[in-house]
Amino acid sequence: MNARITKIGMCFSLAAFTLLVVFNNITDYGSNYNFVRHVLSMDTTFPGNALMYRAITAETLWHLGYWLIIAGEAMACVLFALSAWALFRARNGTAASFNKAKSKVHAAAGVGFMVWFFGFMVVGGQWFVMWQSDSWNGQDAAFRFYTAIIGVLIYVTMPDGELE
């Protein structure tokens, strides 16, 4: 039972984390909007880099990009909350029912991974060379987020046995 409670708690914690991320991004829109604006416009990358043709300088696209990020974070939040709830409901059931309830965790982790790995590492970090910026580089934070998600996914999906 301890393993099941721990797995529920981990999913709940990721739901709470993503909820706070979404809440912060909406209620303090300007702070992280500036981050997105600087990354997409590539205005703090190395001077004269040959990749500047990738820069996006349209304000509408900055807002669109930011709202896509928020939407992905919100989707991860909902899916982690649904995962935690499904696991909670199955906590006293058979091993098969508890293991089956884990299916939503895959979707939640997949969305979270897409936001923080694909969005921040691939698109932001490599396409818009965010790594070149001393001020607007979110790769370290994104790394912490998606590795936590992967760690929880690995632990949660480990098979559970029958309750004793």
Any overview of this molecule?
The chain has 164 residues and is mainly α. It has helices at residues 2-27, 29-41, 59-90, 95-101, 103-127, 139-156. The model has no long low-confidence stretch (mean pLDDT 95).
Secondary-structure element pattern, one letter each: HHHHHH
Q: Please, how many helices?
A: 6
Q: Oligomeric status of the shown chains?
A: single chain
**Major β-sheet profile:** none
Radius of gyration: 19 Å
Please count the beta strands (DSSP E, at least 2 residues each): 0
> What does the average pLDDT come to?
95
Strand content: under 5%
Give the low-pLDDT segments. Answer: none
Distance between the termini: 8 Å
Helix content: over 70%
Structural class: mainly alpha
* Principal-axis shape: elongated
Task: List the main descriptive attributes of the protein structure presented here.
elongated; mainly alpha; 164 residues
Short summary:
With 164 residues, this protein is mainly alpha-helical. It is built from six helices and no strands. The protein is 74% helix and 0% strand.
What order do the helices and strands come in, and which of them pair?
Layout (H helix, E strand, L loop, with lengths): L1 H26 L1 H13 L17 H32 L4 H7 L1 H25 L11 H18 L8
